[in-house]
Fold this protein.
Amino acid sequence: MTKDCYHCGDPVPQDYHHQVEILGHQRDMCCPGCEAVAQTIVASGLTSYYEFRTAPAEKADLVPQQLQSLLLYDHEEIQQEFVRDNADHKEASLSLDGVSCAACAWLIEKQLKREAGVVTIRVNTTTHRALLVWDPEQTKLSHLLSVIHRLGYKAAPFEADAQEQQYHRTMKNYLYRLGIAGIATMQVMMLAVALYFEIFGDLDAEFKNYLRWVSLIFATPVLLYSALPFYLNAWRNLRARTLGMDVPVSIALLFAYIASLYATVMEKGEVFFESISMFTFFLLLGRFLEMRARRQAAAASANLLKLVPAMATLVDGSQVAAKTLKAGDVVTVLPGESLPADGEILQGQTAVDESMLTGEPMPVARIEGDRVFAGTINGDGNITLKVTHDRNHSLISNIVRLQDEAQSSKPKVAEIADIVARYFVAAILVISVCTWLYWYQHRPEDALWITLAVLVATCPCALSLATPTALTCSTSSLGRLGILLRRGHVLETLCNVNQLVIDKTGTLTEGNVRLMETYLIDTQAAPKWKREDVLAIAAELERFANHPIARAFNPFRHTDFQFESVENIIGSGLKGWRDGQEWRIGKADFVLAEHPNREQQLSDCDERYQVWLSCDHQLVAAFLLDDPIRDDSAELIQQFQAAGIDVTMLTGDHSASANTVANALGVNELVAGASPEGKLAYLRGLPKDKIALMIGDGVNDAPVLAGAHLSVAMGGGTDVAKSSADMVLLGDHLSRILQARKLALKTRKIIRENLAWSLGYNLIILPLAVAGFVAPYIAVVGMSGSSIIVVSNSLRLLKDNV
């Protein structure tokens, strides 16, 4: 007997025994294609496709439309646009639709963490975005997206323009729902006045019932259409066995409607159609205003991506999409145009407006060989640019990603607030039942409306919004200051800092090191070298270092002095070999490490000289360097000391200049000549009650930046330092760190105000509602107003005068 393929309906060939378990049974498949598609459908959790289909799938369209669209995201070519490689994992930012409160975020995170291959998932309810990290060897992105879809939410790769369109569609739908609820509320309230106050004189029972039926007609579209978002969110929560903000709201609306419908049909009892309409109208109005405010808070980072132009001009004059540019492509940028990608200037010079990155309004001069970044604006010069990073790995994309990470990382107070909110909803439901039972025994005619007031008035929406909105606003403000957050704990820790540890060269000083003097050493063991040869040798050695001191020797490089090999000893210096000789440059104790009379030689060294050069362990030359102190270094030190914070200058420089800088700035403590290990040891040796903020810029600062409670890397510093730090100061202005601390303190204050307001409001309104002193319309106005107050208070952090 011939079997038919369960998927497409075609006959199964003889001796073909491939099957897939679907809906609890083994189903026969006619070919490997149908088998693969069926397995994908089952693995993605879309077996309902087989339950509700009306006909077998066609060969040309084997996959359900929903799964088909999700499967596209598994293609490598498509993933290149939005997926980033992170070690052995992949990482993507997702836009979420349907997220309304902390319970939604908790639900998505909880369900995805159960999936094999998911490393982390963090949802930000303010920006409606999620940061997903997964192992591609264990799971596919399409499967994870389908899990989110099954929960009732929509997820797609984050794109600023797409999310903008989604936001406008959502707002338009809210306006439609809000309009219907508003019109119905006006009509039902007029009828309610006639019913309750009998302003038209004594109404007979027949006319009263007629007004109730008219009220029912107006209230029904409100309940079925305008209030639909509340039911959907409540159903998602209940289906996942959790409690969200919309559960008590939905119960209140449905119970009020059912009771009113019963009273209308049976012609006895009270009706609450005006309460239903007002509930929905004020709830929607509150959500609408809340969404607009949250949009304002979240727009800053997303808007950065919009600064990157859509098109780019290749060097041959052809136009291509900017997002398709790859490393190695060469493009031309005309005056006034935005740069389409990160790159290096091959030809031309210009002034670039980098205010969107650094917050500095003045354009910065850029010449051949300089790095420039996507989204910045070319000034008055024509430049040819070699692309160094594709759009997905550009600086501006990394900023948006890191801001998402920082905003998604919840401080302890936010986690506690979310847990309290979930349990508070459960407590509200229990209290509501008890309230109804009490009043039903004493005043049954008032039991329902008092219970409705309890359900609505005490919904802890404001509690869940108290922390996320404040963190999102403050992160956006830090971005405008030119401070890039790389960790989520920055704002929380910055408030508690009581010890500032700061590097000297390139941090307190400009890093614009200049060679002031070259001292040639003439000994019997080491004949006197020519000054230009010494400088050329020193420059060739320093070519292998990435430090402000190394750049001071760049002008003296000469091709006649090449080294066979060079080794960089981080924190000490460099050594290289040429023509059978070992040359060293760096600290005196390093260049004299193997000298037979090392101690005597070191005691004879003039401390004014910071850098020494030796050949075969014999001193050849010494170099006197100068590095001007930054204009705002003194203010930074003074402001931190005024706040009761001790300041330590921790530097690898052991010369007299370290003492000069320390004395000029008035630091509390100087630790000079410290190696990278010594810097980390100093930090670990601080008392346990010290919360240290470390500021540095070099490779030798990387260990201590990574080990500090909180760390800042200078924007002009090394990539290693930036990757080790918690914050990156893009503009190299130390005064911005003071502004960041003020912002952190204000953020903490506003979070406390939000929590105090939301908790205080609920604690006050709950006993009043239970006692019957809060009318239903007052309850809904109070609940919506409480949420709006919290969000509006957080928006103060977006103001420039922080």
In short: The longest strand covers residues 89-97. Residues 59-63 have pLDDT under 50 and may be disordered. The chain has 29 helices and 29 strands.
